[in-house]
Amino acid sequence: MEYNFREIEKKWQHYWVENNTYRVQENNEKQKYYVLNMFPYPSGAGLHVGHPLGYIAGDIFARYKRLQGFNVLNPMGYDAYGLPAEQYAIQTGQHPLITTQQNIERYRSQLDKIGFSFDWEREVRTCDPKYYHWTQWTFVKMFESYYDTEKNKALPISLLVEQLEKDGTNNIHAATSNEESISAEEWKAMNEEEQQRFLMHYRIAYQAETKVNWCAALGTVLANDEVVDGLSVRGGHPVVQRNMLQWCLRVSAYAQRLLESLDNLQWTDSIKETQRNWIGRSEGAEVEFRLQSNDLPITVFTTRADTIFGVTFMVLAPESEYVDIVTTDEQRAEVEAYIAETKKRTERERISDRRVSGVFSGSYAINPLTKVAVPIWISDYVLAGYGTGAIMAVPAHDSRDYAFAKHFDLPIIPLIEGADVSEQSFDAKEGIVMNSPVAELEAELKANGGLILNGLTVKEAIKTTKAYIAQHNLGRVKVNYRLRDATFSRQRYWGEPFPVYYKNGIPYTLPVDCLPLELPTIDKYEPTESGEPPLGRAKLWAWDEKNRQVVDKSLIDNQQVFALELNTMPGFAGSSAYYLRYMDPNNTNELVSSDVVNYWKNVDLYLGGSEHATGHLIYSRFWNKFLFDLGTAKTEEPFERLVNQGMIQGRSNFVYRVKDSDKEAPLFVSLNLKDQYDTTPIHVDVNIVSGDVLDIEAFKAWRPEFKNAQFVLENDKYVCGWAIEKMSKSMFNVVNPDMIVERYGADTLRLYEMFLGPLEQSKPWDTNGIDGCHRFLKKFWGLFFDNRDSDQLAINNEPATKEQLKSVHKLIKKITADIENFSFNTAVSAFMICVNELSQLKCHNKELLEQVVILLNPFAPHISEELWSLLGHTNSVCDAAWPQVNETYLVEDEQQLTISFNGKARFQMNFAATASSDEIQAITLQDERTIKYIDGKTVVKVIVVPKKIVNIVLKG
Ligand code: ANZ
């Protein structure tokens, strides 16, 4: 019987839906396994063959685990808020929900054709109020929490208030941007507004005036990872720095935990390293330099406290609050001009571009160890948001300081071993020193309790200096992180509304039992004429505190009815905890119930692109840790094992147009003849090319200007050229999975996607190779039938031969190991080898073929269901048990050795695999051929190398 994949695939896709084959429920009898794919943003272009790569890999693993007896959760959903839908709405006036829903439908129909084992009853969409209810709820919880640095967890802000009432800030250990200490009396004396402003410095979700990446063209703020080289990642529009009142998340409070718990994750070293760098832990010291004029302390952050003797100037970031204080009247005009200049540059430019610029403030500060006065400069190579925004410059040891000193002709003091202290201009009596003090100075210092670094390694010197600084109250040991708090406001429509309203300019959150706060409808999706975000256009957008409901804006009286927040949340809000929601997607009382999350815990295997290394994968880890502190999540980390699939690139095809050929009837020349002409290559739609041969009629129909094209052929064919490029519409190299499914079937598509190469590598798509996978399935199918034209099953129950058993058990072993190692391409080859062997061995053994069917199920679910049922089963093959390898079948029972005489190979002999060297020697010497080659000579020695060779050394 013929392998009719179209019918088979339709039949089983229908069966799975009818029988809820992929419905999963918590089951305490079974061990859980949670496979998750990063959910897609449903774009208007639909899926191309690159998109399902990770889903197929995840599905193979999910099916494999199920066959091994695990209770497998394998859900899918949509990251449905986002900019493209909003921009389309701005252009067309269409509500982004409509385009989003259309795109989702298209995605769903494409996904359904590929035979995934997703439990669609658990689908989530981030734009669905049932879903974002819990995104808003988490935000409210973050607003109502602070981070306790002693207990190392988030705690209710009410506990902080209790502390303030009792002791003021005295016993508070909290992550905060506030340096101010207050007493209980001062706290109590504050009015409501002042107290709220004070608490804002502690909340995990807080509002602050922050420098943001403002993109005027998109009318919104962008996250750092949404900006590259001063341009927005989406759209490539210019981005500038601007101060704005923003919602922020105190991600930085979790820096140390984010760093520590990375170690035990099964993620690639490169992603872990990227995250470590992003978190950027830096151990150093804060040291106080005092202003010469009025003794005011300016704190610097340094990782090289030991170089303090080489400080020749200080530098402040242009935004530093000290700038105003240190700028003298004579220097003011120059300083102000410089500051205006630096505003134009983004932080990224300031870090990457090594251009030296700066201005002298007019003031001096005293080095606390040497007591030498050094000039204070202002320059944008010092960043405001890192450390204290002020540095001590050591031009002899730091390259940026060096470049600066050279440029402005500032002194450079080398701290080189062997340098004579007395040559350097500081007063040793004040009790300090450096690398190589002269002997008597060292003695003097010792007597005075000074700092001696002589003979120490850099590490030891840093440690000793830090201790000295702390002891003498000149500063303190300090750990800094590069990780910044996340800005959480976007001036967009198509995102989660903040459940926040304003009373006297102070934000309050909605009661959690009033959530979700639904996104209102508006008539236009642009910012308002007065520059407010699009939600400024919503009429029904005010909060009636008393009646606990949304009411018309015209009712705002700031007594009972208040204005609602106009910003919406950014893309990462909805994607940060979706993995928890899949566990309990329809729960209307909680994000996820305790029982359910206790069962599923966290994701065992997470698949997605490595481009999320610092965005999504940091935010969701942070978000999860917060939920863990709350008790909602049950594990410190959301994703145990992470696999990053590579990109599938496009394989473009070209035709060669002869330059200057007739415009009406352009001439195209085949690839191997093109050198005889002067030609221009033109991309041609890969879907009208097969095996690099152009379908000429389809080409003529493709574009009207080629209607009358002429062709110079080779062997009656037009051969196209090709190149590997990004898969994109503009290169006409996009391959749609629907087309492949239509032509070859989903099982072939799945096998071929895996066969293309190692999962984690990027590789080009080449439809030309797909036949091999399709033929393999046909050949496998053929093993079950007498011949192509008969629907008579050829299956029998005759005992399997040794070779057949060996072939299948080799396969069981290989497929099991390959799946565990994510080596799916080699697994596909192993199937091909085994099926070839079984064909040659004419294997129709039911028991063995059944095992191959189960092994193949994760890769090719439709054909395996069909064959499983043909073998007489009435259940789904998904509920079969994964075959176990029997090692005894794999033992080789024979070994072949080459028999040689004086090193010359003469013939081969077979021996039992278990034969000893002595047995091999004895049998060889009795063989007729051996006797012939000995030819009466003396056997001096017989060397036996098992499994390889026997060498007989002869003399005479
Ligand atoms: C003196 C010194 C001497 C430094 C030396 C380095 C080398 P990481 O490791 O990244 O934490 N620094 C401190 N705050 C800065 C800021 N806001 N903008 C730019 N640079 C800043 O780097 C810490 C080092 O970077 C600090 O140690 C400081 O320079 C500089 F041989 O102090 B160092």
TrEMBL record:
<dbReference type="GO" id="GO:0004823">
    <property type="term" value="F:leucine-tRNA ligase activity"/>
</dbReference>
<protein>
    <recommendedName>
        <fullName>Leucine--tRNA ligase</fullName>
        <ecNumber>6.1.1.4</ecNumber>
    </recommendedName>
</protein>
<keyword id="KW-0547">Nucleotide-binding</keyword>
<dbReference type="InterPro" id="IPR001412">
    <property type="entry name" value="aa-tRNA-synth_I_CS"/>
</dbReference>
<dbReference type="Pfam" id="PF08264">
    <property type="entry name" value="Anticodon_1"/>
</dbReference>
<feature type="domain" description="Methionyl/Valyl/Leucyl/Isoleucyl-tRNA synthetase anticodon-binding">
    <location>
        <begin position="805"/>
        <end position="916"/>
    </location>
</feature>
<keyword id="KW-0648">Protein biosynthesis</keyword>
<feature type="short sequence motif" description="'KMSKS' region">
    <location>
        <begin position="726"/>
        <end position="730"/>
    </location>
</feature>
<feature type="domain" description="Leucyl-tRNA synthetase editing">
    <location>
        <begin position="276"/>
        <end position="437"/>
    </location>
</feature>
<comment type="similarity">
    <text>Belongs to the class-I aminoacyl-tRNA synthetase family.</text>
</comment>
<dbReference type="InterPro" id="IPR013155">
    <property type="entry name" value="M/V/L/I-tRNA-synth_anticd-bd"/>
</dbReference>
<dbReference type="InterPro" id="IPR025709">
    <property type="entry name" value="Leu_tRNA-synth_edit"/>
</dbReference>
<feature type="binding site">
    <location>
        <position position="729"/>
    </location>
    <ligand>
        <name>ATP</name>
    </ligand>
</feature>
<dbReference type="Pfam" id="PF00133">
    <property type="entry name" value="tRNA-synt_1"/>
</dbReference>
<dbReference type="InterPro" id="IPR002302">
    <property type="entry name" value="Leu-tRNA-ligase"/>
</dbReference>
<dbReference type="Pfam" id="PF13603">
    <property type="entry name" value="tRNA-synt_1_2"/>
</dbReference>
<keyword id="KW-0963">Cytoplasm</keyword>
<dbReference type="InterPro" id="IPR002300">
    <property type="entry name" value="aa-tRNA-synth_Ia"/>
</dbReference>
<feature type="domain" description="Aminoacyl-tRNA synthetase class Ia">
    <location>
        <begin position="12"/>
        <end position="145"/>
    </location>
</feature>
<keyword id="KW-0436">Ligase</keyword>
<keyword id="KW-0067">ATP-binding</keyword>
<keyword id="KW-0030">Aminoacyl-tRNA synthetase</keyword>
